[in-house]
C-alpha cells in the first residue's frame, strides 16, 4: 500500500531541498553530457591530426569540455552538500515535531535511545537521499548515453555491448537487494545499542552505587557482535559486487574494442572513432560508479524507512471546540487504560468538582501517574472518556487544551536560556512580576536570588539539586494560569519544610484552579479537599484523608513508618 505523502520521509526531504536538488540534477546531467561529448571530440581531433588537417579548434573544444567538467563537478559537490543539509534539517524538523505531538507514546513504542538514534543518525543518512538519487540518475545516464553513443558510432558496437548487459543488470540487482538487507540489520543493531545506552545513562547513579558498571557495559554492548556482523556483511557485499564488476566490465570493454578493431580493418569506422568507442565502452560499463551510488541510495532508503516507522505512529487528533466558561470540573467516565498488554486502569469513574484539590494515592503500579497523564491528555484511554467542564479532551482545540491544563512532574524538563525563560516557558506575554510571584509560591525565590544574575542567570550556569529543579518546575506550573493543575509526584524531592510551605500555598482555600495531585506523603493527602484511593486499577474509595485513615489498608499505602509518623 502506498504510504501517504505526509508520512513519506523521502518526499519530505525532496520538498525541503527541491530547488537545490533540481539544480544538482541539472549540474550532474550537464556533467554527464559533457563527459559523453568529450570522446567524440577527441576522436574527431585525432582523425584530423592523422589526416594532417588543422585540428586546433577541436583540441580547444576538448580542453573547454575538460574545464567545463571540472566546473560542473565542483558545482555538483557544493550543491550536494547543501541539499544534504537542507533535507536533513527538514527531516529532523518533521520527525521531531511528530515525536513531540506523540508525547510519551513515542518513547513507549521505540525507546528514548532508539528515537535519538533515528533523529540523529538515520535522519542524517536519509537526508542524503535526494542528492544520492540525483547522483544515481546521473550515474545511470552515463552507461545509457555510452550505449547510445556506441550505436551512433556503429550499431554493431552497441549490439556487442548489449549482449553482455543482462549480466551487469543481474549483478546490480543482487547488490541492491543484499545491501538493503545489510543496512537494515546494521541500523536495527545501532538502535538497540542506543536504547540500552540511554537506559544506562538515565540510571547511572544506581549503577555506580550498586557497582554494576561492568555488567551494564556488557548489556549495552551486547548487540555489538550483531552490528559487526552486519557491517562486515555490507563490506563483503560491496567487495563482491566490485570484484564482479571488475571481472565483467573489462570483458565487455575488450569485446567492444575487438569489434571496433574489426570494423576499422573493414574501413567502416576511423581511428578516432575507435578511440571514442573505447571510451564509450568504459562509460557504458561504469558499474563501479553505480555500485557506490546504489549503496548510498540503499542506505538512505533504509534510514528513511526507520523514520517512516515513527511517522506512521498516529499522533492524537485534536478537535475544534473551545472550552465553555467553567470552574475546571474534571470527569473520568469508565476509563480503561492498558500498558504493555496489562490493564492498569479498569473502568475508572471519577468526578473532581471545579476549584477543588484531589489527592490521588495508591500503591506503586496502581496507575496514579497514568491517571494524571490521562487527565492532562498526555495519553488517551483505551476506553471511556475524560472531560473538562463537560467537553471531552479530544474534542478541544490543541491551544485551548494546553492553556487550560498545566502539569508539573517529579523530574521536570527545564528548558529555556535563562531561569526566567524556564519559568515563563509557554507564556505568550510573560510578566516579570508574575514570574517572581510564581517562584515565591514554589519556594524557589531564595535559591534564585543566590544565583549570579538572579532570574537572568543562564540555566547552564545554575547548578541545582533535585529539589531545586523540582521547585523551578513547580514555579513554571504556577506561572501558567489555567483551570486544571496536575502535579505528578512534583513535591517528592522537597524537604519537609519546603514541601509544607509549597503545599500550603498550593492547597490554600479560595478561588483557584482544580488541582489533581499524585501524592506519596500522608501530609500532602491530609491537606487536600479529598482523596481518591486507587487499588487494583480501580477507585476503591473517595473521601477525606481523615476518614480514609481509619482503614488499615489505606494507612498501609503510605508504609509503616509514614503511618506511625502520621498517627503521632
What is the strand arrangement across the widest sheet?
6-7-8-3-9-10
Percent of residues in helices comes to 55-70%
Query: Kindly state the mean pLDDT as a whole number?
Result: 83
Gyration radius over CA: 34 Å
Task: Tell me what the structure shows.
Helix content is 64%, strand content 11%. It has helices spanning 9-16, 18-51, 56-102, 104-110, 112-127, 129-153, 155-202, 204-210, 213-220, 224-265, 271-284, 287-312, 368-375, 398-404, 419-423, 432-441, 445-449, 466-479, 496-506, 522-527, 545-548, 552-557, 560-567; strands at 330-339, 342-352, 357-361, 383-388, 391-392, 405-409, 484-488, 514-518, 530-535, 538-543.
List the defining traits of the structure above.
elongated, disordered C terminus, 6-stranded mixed β-sheet, single chain, 4-stranded antiparallel β-sheet, alpha/beta, about 575 residues, 23 helices, disordered N terminus
